[in-house]
Amino acid sequence: MTGLMAQGWAAAVGMPDGGSDIRGSVPLNASASGEVGKVESVEPGKGKRITIIQASPSKPFSAQFSAPVGGAIEKGERVFAVIKARLVGAEDVGEVLAKLQLSDPPYASFGDNIGVGIHREWMELPVTFVATESIPEGKAAVVLLCGHRNQSIEVESVRLLKYPASMDLAGFPKAKPVKRTYEGREADAPWRKAALERIEQHRKADLALTLTGEGGKPMANAEVKLRLRRHEFGFGSAIVADRMGSDAPDDKRYRKVIDDLFSIVVFENDLKDGNWSPEFDDARRTKRNEGLNEAFDWLAERNIGVRGHYLMQVPTPYNLIDVKDNAVIRERTMASVTERLEFVKDRVVEWDVINHPIAWVGADMLNVRPGLEQLDRDVFKLSRSKTKLPFFVNEDQVFRPGPQCDDTYAYIKSLNEAGFKVDGLGNQAHFHESYLPSPEHLLAITDKFAEIVSKQSITEYDVVINDDEELAADFTRDVLIAIFSHPAYTSFLWWGFWEGTHWKPEAASWAKDWTIRERGKVMEEWIGKRWRTEVTLTTDDEGKVNWRGFPGWYDVEVGGEMKTVNITKADPSAVLD
Predict the structure, then answer these.
(1) Which burial class, exposed, middle or buried, applies to 515 when counting CB atoms under 10 A from its CB (0-12, 13-18, 19+)?
(2) Percent of the residues in the chain that have a pLDDT greater than 70, as a whole number
(3) What residues contact 211, with CB distance under 8 A and at least 6 apart?
(4) Span 88-124, pLDDT tens digits
(5) What Cα–Cα distance (Å) separates residue 114 from each residue in 1, 177, 437?
(6) 414-422 long-range contacts, Cβ below 8 Å, gap at least 24?
(7) What is the predicted pLDDT for the residue at 3?
(8) Mean pLDDT computed over every residue of the chain
(9) Does residue 216 surpass a pLDDT of 70?
(10) Contacts of 434 (CB under 8 A, 6+ apart)
(11) Which pLDDT does position 473 carry in this prediction?
(12) What gap in Å lies between CA 493 and CA 434, rounded to an integer?
């Protein structure tokens, strides 16, 4: 296709000028696993048909169309696809999940899936990808996954243009997405009623406080106002250490959200191996340490706990990608673990000792390199010799049926059996609109892992849903309720909350200008209001008050004086002088 022709059909769907054709001449391909569906050729020139007989919601890749890319793609370039397709059969609407990926194993993707609604009439449907990495000529494909729902789809063609990385994404048209939902979303869903009852029963406790005055004399018949200031349960987020000491207006607002809502945080990158490179000079080390010390101090003053993330990542960290000598990798890893543990000491409440032991398809795993097969266990052993803090194994997509769930379970079990006691599962819980499991499924997976660990944490929650913030808010609410209702969990952390410092800006709870999104309102409503305890009581003759509420740090006002006390579920009675 000539550039003029490419511009002609691009203009027909509202595209800007300046694109170059990269489709090439390799025909459109279609495939489906036998248990999911079948592939048929349609009349000449009309492409392929895939009919899904037994959908697999967690494995949309089990049936797919594939359009190889002929040209090279540079990181950041915009790849614009026009999919000519229609729905056949009984369904009212169909859907494909479009993605840009390698055309051959390991099929690494270069961005998120994009849902595209397929309708009964032939339509040319536009999709725009932003390449997250450079891809050599002839190595990429645009694939259309369709195995996640019962449907019959015909695709006649997929045409492809690429545009410079400088091109404004707002100028690209979008196909109308399919209206999505998830099982258990209904307002009167039975699971939610049961979960809220469990929260009342298991998360609250019968609490007591005794007030004493001069000489330890009980303060009888005194009015006491108690307000939960900070939950014992770990509601929180990933944060950036540098924002904890800055006077910039955005950073002050950032800290206010943390102070108002959270009881635990995790440094997004500050304690990772890449931030502790031996190449750092003294000035950079000093700046890093001073920033972390200031952040730790600010959090400690406010009784906000910190998770340690992480000691070792099994997929090769970015700072070790260019190191080819495996002995050097081992030496640097062990030295870095030691340095970080000695610096942090007991200023965290737990550690992700191993991050991504299973990882994603195509990951460059350290433990398959000669001489590094036991590196994760050596790190575990070294770390245990230096701290008694709880150790978590942290992995993503544990809620999605498949290898990351099954293999994570097997990995933790094998560590336990070998004497490396894993205290908890860190479930990253990054969700995408292409797979939104039911809350009951989340609870079932939690039950499964409770067989092998005593604690679980949602460590990196976010959800990417395009053009449906109401769905994102409802899903966030229900995940939050389900997790808080299960006694296995000790914390629930978002992987960032502000668009100004978020790895997926569209998944942030506050926009860059601090406009709160619907999913952020869920955070404020449930953590900030519904799950709060605030009572006014009068002490008895012994200076004691009793109430039922959420354990944690309480602001106590009596006689015009304000004090703070920590009342835990394990020790629900406190004395305040």
Answers:
(1) exposed
(2) 98
(3) 218, 219, 222, 224, 539, 543, 544, 545, 556, 558, 575, 576
(4) 988 888 999 999 999 998 888 998 889 999 999 999 9
(5) 26, 9, 18
(6) 415/377, 415/380, 416/452, 418/377, 420/377, 420/380, 420/381, 420/384, 421/391, 422/391, 422/392, 422/393, 422/452, 422/453
(7) 45
(8) 94
(9) yes
(10) 60, 97, 113, 115, 145, 148
(11) 98
(12) 22
Q: Where do we find the tokens 């959420």?
A: 550
For residue 140, the cross-strand partners are 102
Q: Which amino acid is at 329?
A: I
Q: Read off the pLDDT of each residue in 331-345 and give the average, rounded to a whole number.
A: 97
Cβ partners under 8 Å of residue 63, min gap 6: 31, 32, 33, 36, 37, 39, 50, 52, 145, 146, 147
- Token digits of residue 322: 């260019």
Inter-residue contact 69 to 151 (CB < 8 Å): no
Q: What does residue 475 show for φ and ψ, rounded to 5 degrees?
A: -65, -45
Local structure of residue 106 (DSSP, 8 states):
T
Q: Where are the beta strands (DSSP E) in 335-408?
A: 350-355, 391-395
pTM above 0.85, yes or no: yes
Facing residues of 355 across strands?
Answer: 313, 394
pLDDT tens by residue, 297-306: 999 999 999 9
CA 292 from centroid of its chain's CA atoms:
23
- The SS3 of residue 250 is helix
**What is the model's pLDDT at position 57?**
87
Rounded to whole angstroms, how far apart are CA atoms 354 and 369? 17
